Amino acid sequence: MPELICPDCGKRLFHENEDTLKIEETIHGKFCRKKAGENHSFMHRDLAHMSTFDSERENDGVGNPVLKK
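Above: the chain sequence. Below: its structure as tokens.
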């Protein structure tokens, strides 16, 4: 079974189909944490800025918050 081990984070990727493994490798390259324990997020988050981006749609029509905080 073809496999690949990421040199940055050490994650082992494997799949029976080599084409699928190449796709997984491409996706992993975009989302790799580089170091164990770091965020999986693709975006860089500023912890000081946790307010809602769109304050008009922060609540639904009844007034209940749409997102959990």
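Residues 1-38 form one domain.
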